């Protein structure tokens, strides 16, 4: 089973809108692949959800993070890379993927998507990941 790290922006989209990001997250929860995350990503997710524009209460944030912790493998991040000079907080996503031995990072961030691949980890959009999953399921049948 392959391993996937979701960037915070994809998680926010999956949580707040009923679109492709949510469909992808559901596939991970239903064990079509292994979701990998870290305390760094979970902490950033909580911080973003606390922004006034999202109108998310503390109880709801706690439930979301707890559900993600149960659905995902939470890895310890020890690596430090300097990859995204424009937004150094993006580095934690790649660090999580590297230390979590992930196969993919799914992001909507142009800085990360611009990397395309890092040490064998493919960095793809939600759409690209959904296409990959569809192709993979067709080759199994």
How many helices? The count is 7
Strand content: 5-15%
| Radius of gyration using CA atoms only | 14 Å
What is the SS-derived class? Answer: alpha/beta
Low-confidence stretches: none
**Terminal Cα span:** 16 Å
* CATH topology term: Rossmann fold
- Topology as H/E string? EHHEHHEHEHEEH
The H-level CATH homologous superfamily, spelled out, is: 5'-nuclease
The CATH C-level name is Alpha Beta
The gross shape turns out to be globular
Number of domains: 1
CATH architecture: 3-Layer(aba) Sandwich
What share of the residues lie within helices?
40-55%
Oligomer state equals: single chain
Tell me the total number of β-strands.
Answer: 6
Question: Which sheet architecture does the biggest sheet show?
Answer: 6 strands, mixed
User: What is the typical, i.e. mean, pLDDT?
Assistant: 94
User: What strand line-up does the widest sheet have?
Assistant: 3-2-1-4-6-5
Offer a quick outline of the entry:
By secondary structure, the protein is an alpha/beta fold. The chain has helices at 8-16, 20-29, 39-49, 58-71, 91-99, 110-115, 126-140; strands at residues 3-6, 34-38, 73-75, 104-106, 117-118, 121-124. It starts with a strand and ends with a helix.
Plain-language structure description:
By secondary structure, the protein is an alpha/beta fold. It has one domain (about 5-140): Rossmann fold, CATH 3.40.50.1010. It contains seven helices and six strands; from the N terminus they run βααβααβαβαββα. Strands 3-2-1-4-6-5 form a six-stranded mixed β-sheet, with helices on both faces. A hairpin with a 2-residue loop joins β5 (about 115-120) and β6 (about 120-125). α1 packs across α2 (about 20-30) and α1 packs across α3 (about 40-50). The radius of gyration is 14 Å and the shape is globular. It starts with a strand and ends with a helix.
